[in-house]
Amino acid sequence: MNKEVVLDIETQNTFQEVGGYDTSLLKISVIGCYFYETDTYESFEEHELAKLWPRLEHADRIIGYNTVGFDLPVMNNYYGGNFLTFPGLDILAEIHKSLGFRLKLDDVAAATVGTRKSGHGLQAVEWWKQGEIQKIKDYCLQDVKVTKDVYEYGLKYGALAYEDRLGGRKAIPIDFAPKVQEKVAINLTMGF
What we know:
Distance between the termini: 27 Å
InterPro entries: RNaseH-like_sf, RNaseH_sf, YprB_RNase_H-like_dom
Shape: globular
Structural class: alpha/beta
Mean pLDDT: 91
Number of strands: 7
Pfam families: RNase_H_2
Organism: Candidatus Uhrbacteria bacterium RIFOXYB2_FULL_45_11
CATH topology of the domain at 4-96 and 119-148: Nucleotidyltransferase, domain 5
GO molecular function: nucleic acid binding
Strand content: 15-25%
Number of helices: 7
Protein name: YprB ribonuclease H-like domain-containing protein
């Protein structure tokens, strides 16, 4: 049974508000997940994160877009271990490895699967300030769906796509197949 998890996070604050690029100062509003094991989309608010950690600890792989540079370090602010040691696939890191530069998820998704994101993360911070949690959850889970679609396309075809500056569609060769990895010892959440 596939126990991969696709995730995305939204934060309560921005780098501009905390005075620089320091993920340790960011707070989570919502984490959205797709669980292959149960074929479900679920969202977790900051006060519900303890319910999510055991599921991630037992995941075959954590998949996302810019997870190594953003999502996982911010999640580590709330977790006793280190999510960066878990088996994972950062789609953006694979794109950078292939092309030598980074691309926005929105641009990759539009060229690859014909779908765009429904907004951007700064909107989610504003919704947080306005107390509109359901809007954050909906936006975050839509990002998870887009990420999942891009992942599945890349897994199936060994390539993604983007539009170059001249409007031409270019291929991004990638390999999303799970790598044989040593099992890393992880901090299992206490079941109290």
